[in-house]
């Protein structure tokens, strides 16, 4: 399920079928910046110790020095960004690319072009909704073959947990040896039959195995028992979808994961948390010193249930977008450092699968497509609440990189990859579907004004914005 919901028949790319604005109306002001800068200097560089004036030196794809603003070797060209922000590339550890098998929904070329256009320099692909899912070494090899030569940013992979028998344990070991960044499991139905959910008992058996390998296990945490007792979703009413996924489903599942972490010492991570009620168990686990972490998503921080129109299935995701008071509590938890990161859970699909024409929440596939606009969406909300860009970098760059063990990503520091973003933090724009690079330009952000315009994205020191030739690399843990 994009963490999603029931799927439908596949359709061809809908780009030409959807209304688009003329490109001249979509032009956004951008600077002429070099393809391969040697030194980038700005009065606003986001460093691990905060924002300050600095010059960032790049050679052979790495950051070789961070110096005071005026220092540069003689004869080396310097690109002066003035008051534009220089920040590390965003690391999005929760992206559904869907290729191979459901490439008509999304693929490596389109997903990574969208990522690059939005300042994302690294993604980690979820093990579903591709066919086959990434639950075996052969499936991982198929994913890597499909991605080769297409990717505009660096790409890593999660493996999947769909059982704990001897064969599945061998698959987990082979995937771990091949360099996946950890393993994903669903406690509730995933929405695709080839990736079944597991019971807490089965997850415990699998986690015993992943813990011995030192691997991270990431979990879609909703209790199937609570979901089964909730009222079924009916028709076009968003309130019906919301009632069908109550906060108690997340709270019970997160409590169960905390207990599992306490019993096994395993590293567990709660994906896309939307219910603030469940944060009490996360906090208690942290106080006890348990290795339990949690993430949330831009859409939970941007939209509220009160503003979602009936029939607007582009807002459907699981867990769902909840009310305004709940959103305030998520922002408070971010400020308190409870979240390991903010990641998109990017999960596009076709207009037919999304039930765009019917607006039927019961039949629509769920998932929010936002890898290109997650950074400005979060900055817009953070700025309005008094947070800094240094906070946003911690949530969207350093935090997800640390979660995945990518120490050369998500930070501007000597020795790190020169994955850099030039951001105009004060420029506002209206999201138009025609400016989006992902395969189907369906998004709940359409028509929304956001602040924070990505002027340039650099991948290992070379421009990597949306339409440039792909030069991303496949990553292994």
Q: In angstroms, what is the radius of gyration?
A: 21 Å
Low-pLDDT parts are: 4-27
- What would the principal axes of the Cα set say about the shape? globular
Number of strands: 17
Structurally, the number of domains stands at 1
CATH class: Alpha Beta
Taken as a percent bin, the fraction of beta residues is 15-25%
Largest sheet: 8 strands, mixed
| Amino-to-carboxy terminus distance | 25 Å
Q: Kindly state the mean pLDDT as a whole number?
A: 92
CATH hierarchy: architecture: Alpha-Beta Barrel
Q: What is the share of helical residues? A: 25-40%
Assembly category: single chain
Structural class: alpha/beta
- Helix and strand run: HEEEEEEHEHEEHEHEHHHEHEHHEHHEEE
CATH level-3 fold name: TIM Barrel
How many distinct helices? 13
CATH homologous superfamily (4th level) name: Metal-dependent hydrolases
């Amino acid at each position: 399920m994009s963490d999603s919901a029931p799927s439908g028949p596949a359709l061809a790319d809908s780009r030409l079928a959807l209304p688009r604005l003329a490109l001249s109306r979509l032009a956004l002001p951008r600077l002429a910046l070099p393809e391969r800068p040697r030194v980038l200097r700005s009065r606003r560089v986001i460093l691990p110790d905060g924002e300050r004036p600095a010059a960032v030196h790049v050679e052979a794809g790495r950051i070789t020095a961070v110096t005071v603003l005026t220092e540069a070797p003689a004869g080396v060209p310097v690109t002066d960004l003035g008051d534009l922000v220089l920040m590390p590339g965003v690391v999005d550890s929760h992206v559904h690319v869907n290729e191979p098998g459901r490439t008509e929904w999304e693929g490596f070329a389109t997903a990574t072009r969208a990522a690059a256009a939005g300042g994302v320099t690294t993604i980690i692909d979820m093990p579903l909704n591709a066919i086959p899912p990434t639950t075996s070494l052969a499936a991982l090899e198929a994913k890597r073959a499909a991605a080769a030569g297409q990717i505009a940013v660096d790409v890593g992979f999660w493996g999947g947990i769909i059982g704990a028998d001897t064969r599945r344990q061998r698959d987990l070991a082979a995937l771990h040896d091949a360099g996946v960044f950890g393993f994903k499991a669903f406690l509730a139905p995933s929405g695709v039959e080839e990736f079944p959910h597991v019971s807490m008992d089965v997850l415990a058996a699998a986690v015993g195995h992943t813990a011995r390998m030192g691997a991270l296990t990431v979990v879609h945490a909703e209790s199937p028992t609570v979901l089964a007792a909730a009222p079924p979703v009916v028709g076009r009413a968003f309130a019906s979808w919301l009632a069908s996924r109550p906060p108690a489903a997340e709270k019970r599942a997160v409590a169960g994961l905390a207990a599992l972490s306490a019993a096994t010492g395993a590293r567990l991570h709660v994906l896309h948390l939307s219910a603030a009620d469940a944060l009490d168990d996360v906090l208690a686990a942290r106080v006890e010193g348990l290795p339990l972490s949690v993430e949330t998503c831009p859409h939970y921080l941007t939209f509220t249930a009160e503003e979602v129109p009936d029939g607007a299935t582009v807002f459907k995701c699981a867990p769902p977008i909840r009310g305004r008071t709940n959103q305030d509590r998520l922002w408070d938890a971010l400020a308190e450092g409870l979240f390991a990161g903010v990641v998109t859970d990017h999960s596009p699909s076709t207009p037919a699968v999304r039930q765009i024409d019917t607006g039927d929440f019961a039949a629509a596939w769920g998932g929010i497509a936002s890898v290109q606009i997650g950074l400005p969406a979060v900055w817009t909300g953070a700025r309005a609440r008094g947070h800094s860009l240094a906070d946003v970098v911690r949530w969207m760059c350093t935090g997800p990189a640390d979660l995945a063990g990518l120490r050369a990503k998500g930070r501007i520091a000597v020795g790190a990859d020169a994955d850099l973003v030039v951001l105009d933090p004060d420029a506002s724009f209206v999201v138009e579907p025609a400016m989006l690079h992902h395969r189907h330009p369906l998004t709940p952000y359409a028509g929304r004004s956001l602040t924070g315009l990505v002027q340039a994205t650099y991948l290992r020191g070379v421009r990597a914005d949306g339409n440039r030739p792909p030069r991303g690399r496949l990553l292994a843990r």
